[in-house]
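Q: Joint fold for the lines below.
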Amino acid sequence: MKIGIVNNGLGNVGSVHSAFEFYKYDVILANNPKDLDASDVIVLAGVGNFKTAAAKLRQLQFWNKLGEEVIVKKKPLLGICLGMQLFADVSFEGGENKGLGWIKGRVVKIEGDLVKVPHIGWDEVKPMDEILFKGMRYNSFYFMHSYHFIPEDKSVIKAVTQYGDLEIVSAVRKDNIVGVQFHPEKSQGDGLRLLRNFLEMSK
Amino acid sequence: MNIKHEIEDELERCTRCTLPITWETLYFDNEGVCNICRNWDAKQKEVNWEDREKQIIKIFEERKKEKASYDCIVPFSGGKDSTFTLWAIVKKYGLKPLVVSFDHGFYRPRTIENRTRTFRRLGVDVITFTPNWQTVKKLMLEALIRKGDFCWHCHAGIFAYPMNIAVKFEIPLLIWGEGGGEYEGYFKFADLEETDEWKFNRRIILGMRAEDMAGFTGVELRDLKPYMYPPKEELERVGIKSLPLGKYIPWDVKKQVEIIKKELQWKEDEIESGFPGPTYEKIECMFTGVRDYIKYLKRGFSRITHLTTLDIKHGRMSRAEAMEHIKRLEKRKPRSLDVFLEYLGINEEEFNKIVLRHVIYPAKPLDPKTLSEGSKLWDQDLWFRDKVNEEKK
Amino acid sequence: MTYKRIIPIFLLKGNRLVKGTRFGDFVDVGDPLSQAMIYDAQGADEIIIVDIDASGNKRLINTDIINAMIHKCRLPISAGGGIKTIEDARKCFGAGADKIIINTSAALNPSLIKHLADEFGSQSVVVSVDVKKSRTGNYDVYIYSGRQKAALDIMEHISRVIDYGAGEVIVTSIDKEGTLTGFDYEIYNKLKNITKVPLIASGGAGKYDDMVKLFKETDCDACAVGKMLFLRDYDIVKFKSYLKGRKIPVRDA
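A: Joint structure:
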């Protein structure tokens, strides 16, 4: 199984790459859209600004290519952090910006009286998906984000995290598309197990 | 002085087993019971030992089928745990091991006797590695200064050296003794953790790997190879499994000691910091007494606490009885300290200064001069003393 | 609930890590990659690595060291030292840093924070502030690893860096640093109302109860630990066990 990591020049894909390598998987950094042809599984990772990321994906011709590979060809895709937020119809980070529209919903700023923004650190994740979270030891993962994804169809929600008075959607899954708000590549043992689970369910 | 002012009474202790708060990784729940006791409870209830033993027997049987020169490596010191493990591997499970022994430099006469008898009776091949003494001395002093713990060379070497041999001889199975969890909270019993580099980095080497030590001591990194865990790539190439037997069978030390005494005439010995008379605990090192003494200075408790803790857990002693022993026996300076200081080339004042820098709050620094000396071990006069040191005096 | 974080703080000098007292008297405390692997295994929540000579020598932290750490460790790494431009930051992110830390540049050129936040997102931009209590009891801000006093009011400075988009603030007490005598709780309490972003305390951790006090009495989200880890017999597992027993929410690992 070949894993293609979208290299959009924004996110920190080096860590994702090395995390998959830990398990001896065949991983490539896809610098241009064509590289995704040979991938069986795609990873879209990223931190940073939604608007900038969306613009970069368009500029590098990844935008339509991703639709083709994931929606038409049904290749499994894992979106990490901003990668998951890009599934939405729209995000309000840096103005109003269109997302990939794969999962209906919007991305809004984290707001609450009891919370600091950005949401940074390790937090408990309440899993609602037995396969993705199989064999977890502690279910705590590393978060770093200021915006969060609110899907319309609640049935896609596969994990939530309580942050102050706010309930954040920390994992989604719809057909072949999986997204996590946290960073499994930075989350030690449980993070590695989650990446492995994703690949297991993509077989 | 009223006994209430003594250090051991001031420490918060587990309401069940007496372990004090200065014990590594200890914390108490709302009932004042420590996590190690809770972990012990879990071990009694949750683990299906029959199932576990089946798992390891399956691994053994598959390995035997390969008819390799050696079925496995057993890392060995000659203490109770590794002797039992070796006995079980040979006699109970019928494997052909290569025994690998990292000589820490402090075997006592009875340990050497026990080792020789065990090897001969069981009929095993043995590799004993003796590391460069000049390097060992530097490593001991450095670790003592930085961490108040001189045992770095021993822990790192005992753990890493057999792994290096496994890679070199391509023997893909190592069987260790006890699994973590019985004495400390680094690992939970419910986990089936392999003995890997993660554990080595987490627990064994006091926050200092060979790369760090090389810079501290000026010893070349190539001279520290015996203390370095082999790279992941090499372990994967050989397909090494490194497993603690104590995670697959219930580890009852007392029963196991009875077995090795009966089957191998393994002999107990006295130690300086324990109950008077022969014991099976940590008799394989000359400086168990010094190690325990340092622990007392740093943490306000020592081996008597450790021993009575296990007795309470196994229902062999009451808590009140344990506290009685702790008060009576724990506060003592070992006679072997002189030899230790001679080996390290420092004086007692320097030693005290180093150790007292490492007192773990809420234990309080105490004046080592106020402690009375214990009695000399029967074999101390037989320990090797280099004439060079004598002449310097 | 977000767990309180325990963060080993690495001071890089050349190719080795050092630790001192009040920003001086440095001793070698190890190899950066080796130490990172150790604290990753012990379950540290993050690692901060700062090249303490970079700003003064007008160069950037060695990004190869960051890259080596990323490949051997599975925890977030914040890196700093000599970051003056977007390009410097990009090099650090490119090497695999999860967050970048600016200190001197944030004081000299606060608009850099805004540019960094726009480009990489606030969550990846950490501003570090070194403070020292003056004889009058006020806190002064220092730059160039404590070598130069900046003409800045601390409250104004920290409010400004947050407004410009700093996603996290780490405040180090120069008076306490390396002394093992406890944190400067006063400064963290003063900052309580203005830090709408996570706040990291640094300088002074010397015993378990210092961390307990910090997390019980201030609004800090994380603490950086140096000497206590490097030159005393403690480790992350021991920290977390103790804090757990004292009902501080820390992550099991």
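Q: Anything notable?
A: Strands of chain B lie at 72-75, 97-102, 125-129, 173-176, 241-244. The CA atoms of residues 12 and 21 of chain B lie 6 Å apart.
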